[in-house]
Amino acid sequence: MGDPLTFVVTLVLRVAALLFLLRFVLQAVHASFYNPVSEGIVRFTNPVLDPVRKVLRPYRNLDFASFFMAWVAHMLAVTFHIWSTGLSIDILAILTDGLHTTLSLVVGIFLVAIFVSIIMSWIAPQVYSPAAIIARELAEPLLAPARRILPALGGIDLSPMITIVVLLLIQGFALGTVMPCQYQSWCG
């Protein structure tokens, strides 16, 4: 198995996992699905998710089929990576590494959304952009509690800093200690 093939297969699986997780997170925060970006994500993920939803039913605004398929995509990527490097396959490690990567990606999605919404508020606060609207819709449910704790000081909103620190703590320490990666070459 060559390196380019491993790269392409794991890239495709990770992009699929990202699309599934974006679908999960957008639905969890009640984002508008009339946005062109959201419509594209729905269009790409529906063929896979519709059959899975017959088994894993959504609960309120949590689409368990999307999360599950992201986890499966990550587990397949871990398995392919292990198989291509010639390491021995450990099913429990594949399950936990796939879940670790999936949860870490959820945190990463929120971090990117916060950074994009911060940058867009500096550069062009009144410009309509589908990506900027999605970033704001993803970031706002996390920023609102931080704003209640620490209101704006002289027009400067410090809630993104608090939220980013909390998310980095969750990503770095909570996920790293509770569920460390077994295959460090995959997770690192």
Report on this structure.
This protein is mainly α. Helices cover 76% and strands 0% of the residues. It has 7 helices and no strands.
Give the arrangement of secondary structure elements.
Blueprint: H1 3-28, H2 36-53, H3 64-85, H4 91-123, H5 130-149, H6 159-178, H7 184-187
Helix pairs in contact: 1-2, 1-3, 1-4, 2-3, 3-4, 4-5, 4-6, 5-6
What is the subunit arrangement here?
Answer: single chain
| Helix-strand category | mainly alpha
Tell me the series of helices and strands, N- to C-terminal: HHHHHHH
Total DSSP helices = 7
What is the overall pLDDT average? 86
Got a strand count? Answer: 0
Beta fraction of the residues?
A: under 5%
Give the overall shape. Answer: globular
Largest sheet: none
> Ends: how far apart?
21 Å
Radius of gyration: 18 Å
Unreliable spans are: none
